[in-house]
Amino acid sequence: xxxxxxxxxxxxxxxxxxxxxxxxxxxxxxxxxxxxxxxxxxxxxxxxxxxxxxxxxxxxxxxxxxxxxxxxxxxxxxxxxxxxxxxxxxxxxxxxxxxxxxxxxxxxxxxxxxxxxxxxxxxxxxxxxxxxxxxxxxxxxxxxxxxxxxxxxxxxxxxxxxxxxxxxxxxxxxxxxxxxxxxxxxxxxxxxxxxxxxxxxxxxxxxxxxxxxxxxxxxxxxxxxxxxxxxxxxxxxxxxxxxxx
Amino acid sequence: xxxxxxxxxxxxxxxxxxxxxxxxxxxxxxxxxxxxxxxxxxxxxxxxxxxxxxxxxxxxxxxxxxxxxxxxxxxxxxxxxxxxxxxxxxxxxxxxxxxxxxxxxxxxxxxxxxxxxxxxxxxxxxxxxxxxxxxxxxxxxxxxxxxxxxxxxxxxxxxxxxxxxxxxxxxxxxxxxxxxxxxxxxxxxxxxxxxxxxxxxxxxxxxxxxxxxxxxxxxxxxxxxxxxxxxxxxxxxxxxxxxxxxxxxxxxxxxxxxxxxxxxxxxxxxxxxxxxxxxxxxxxxxxxxxxxxxxxxxxxxxxxxxxxxxxxxxxxxxxxxxxxxxxxxxxxxxxxxxxxxxxxxxxxxxxxxxxxxxxxxxxxxxxxxxxxxxxxxxxxxxxxxxxxxxxxxxxxxxxxxxxxxxxxxxxxxxxxxxxxxxxxxxxxxxxxxxxxxxxxxxxxxxxxxxxxxxxxxxxxxxxxxxxxxxxxxxxxxxxxxxxxxxxxxxxxxxxxxxxxxxxxxxxxxxxxxxxxxxxxxxxxxxxxxxxxxxxxxxxxxxxxxxxxxxxxxxxxxxxxxxxxxxxxxxxxxxxxxxxxxxxxxxxxxxxxxxxxxxxxxxxxxxxxxxxxxxxxxxxxxxxxxxxxxxxxxxxxxxx
Lengths: 245, 639
Hints:
The complex is a heterodimer.
Chain A (H helix, E strand, L loop, with lengths): L2 E7 L8 E7 L8 H14 L22 E2 L2 E2 L21 E5 L8 E3 L2 E2 L2 H8 L21 H11 L6 H5 L6 H13 L7 H14 L10 H5 L7 H12 L3
Parallel strand pairs in A: 1-5
Antiparallel strand pairs in A: 1-2, 3-4, 3-5, 6-7
Helix pairs in contact in A: 2-6, 3-5, 5-6, 5-8, 6-8
Chain B lengths: L15 H8 L5 H4 L3 E5 L3 H13 L2 E5 L17 E2 L11 H11 L6 H20 L15 E2 L6 E4 L5 H19 L2 E4 L2 E9 L2 E9 L5 E5 L2 E4 L20 H8 L4 E2 L4 E7 L22 E5 L16 E2 L1 H5 L9 H13 L11 E4 L1 H7 L1 H19 L8 E10 L2 E2 L12 E3 L16 H22 L13 H20 L3 E2 H15 L6 H21 E2 L9 H25 L23 H4 L1 E6 L8 E6 L14
Helix pairs in contact in B: 3-6, 3-12, 4-5, 5-12, 10-11, 14-15, 14-16, 15-16
């Protein structure tokens, strides 16, 4: 197939960026979306141009490296799919595909399509853990955990931290990301002792960093490649109210 | 000097680790704050170690090439993590776990290390659960287990098909807690490009900031590599594309011996290659073999669709050849059996290079919901990537390069042959012999990081408490930095006409064909010549665009491929020197009349540890003899 790519190019964090259009022939429907970008890069290198920088690693939807706004949607047109799992069968021959980095001022562009998501690290450092030093743990089966709690905690814990929720949100809120971690640990008895401090400090850090507030729009849930539900935000809100602030 | 003193503690096997812990030197808490440790790699092993060392009070500097440790490739381990809890009351024990790993590794692993890994496995599960890892539970609220290839008990803890992700995030949460406390300093988006050795001891690294291209010097009292495996050397593998051997190779060039480099596990259940653009092969968890049955048509070249082939025209070849273990034979056995059927013309799919993994029977017996509960995400992933619904049609699978049992040689303390340089997790060679059992990797990584390294590194550091922090303006740092800069500049300066990836693909093909699932002398010899010629071409004609002082992904790749040429040759030399078959290393010259791997214990019961002697000089082979005092060495039969 033959496509036209409109890609955000920006040589580094300080430089001005802009869209550059690349017609691309010889694309196969058997390619994944990132294999199509690999192919574009081969043609760019062959022509002596700078390849497009984009982040990727596992290429199976689990590491959370890949990002990309594709035709106005985080991770492209397929539901519950990371960009690396997206196939070219989702696009028509002759299509124009617009590719941008995540849209969020809290994720500044480092080069082309690569953004700096270290603000997520800061949020997790504020409380996204159980303070269980190595060696202190009791026998694993000494604390039973109801299956439905463990399963629901797991459903939250599958967050890959890609940032699609922030990029999708008109307010640039990180609520779904924060909620996934708060909810996972709030559901497990291991996380209860620190539940109050955790939610307070993670929310405070999120606000400090300049992420927006949640407006219950639900774009995050709609675009989350891992299907993380808004109910986790509801649980976060309940946990937050319990802190008495 | 004997380069290979494994320093195995005296005493009965089951008491060695306890005795050793009682004997090792300790560093008191006040002194730990004066000691710096560099830790490279933040997968499960690295993250667990960083958290534990930070908690102890050491100053830890952690390096990873991604933007966050959460992305390390441990995240992709699917099926589970083993421990000898015996929660199923099926006769499991530390000894049985130890025995299974030794046998699964085809008697090419060190007894003492393996027993210790089995001993700490239970505490590892306790630790991960305490960290908030949501392992699967049954309705009682207690932890669930499943079984895995090569064993007859159920000892595998799991979190659907995302066990690695959940374990890594658990260990990572401990790491970031120490970052918040200021005990761990995180250097992300850094590649380690050289090791700095001062007075014979590892004292620092040279790293490249992948955003700015700056070359940095970092010093410490000890350096730990937790840099994973090198299965990406085959180009197409189940690994993340960024996985590489460059840090380990830098250490090797500085004097760390590299052990059993040719022991590479080819995973039996990966998605087959579909086309030439493909950048990786996606793994389908081995846990699928619990309920899925593997087969090919009985008739050669049968092109009917799977569901139309009647039951009596299907060859369930694993069940036929290995009735005792059936579809749950170890990975190396399953991989070779698939290759045997495909090479003989019974493979399915357009290329004839795949076999069926069929859930039809299991769905009929247990119901779709039960299968979905166990493997739901794997089935979804399969459908996303292939467009085929595995609830209705069998999956198609083929073996793919996966895990490297080989790695840096370490002694019982997980220290390499360079004093002060440790290697943990997949980066070392120590626990899996010639073949790793499923769910053994997470077990080893977590055990090394949480419970073993923190003890053994303390022993090393116990007499270093008076040593001041090392300044990085010493000549050893300057020399290492210059070498790194020159190497990078050289790659750019070639300015040839072929991309880095095109070389990587060709190198991968050579190794896959002649140093992959099946090896023989003429093939390996041919591979050696081809690699040398290809490397020559790379040096003459590679095209690395851009500059060293910027974010340059092509340059990052070029460094990895440059080092893969040298490692690929070493893999071939290792495979050539070991004229027996064992585990994943199958030499055609050494097989039983039934086509099974034939070990030659009288000649090859050793660890092959290779010493680097210079870019053009041949490596020197050192042998660490393996003594088996606690298991009876047998033919590894799964029949």
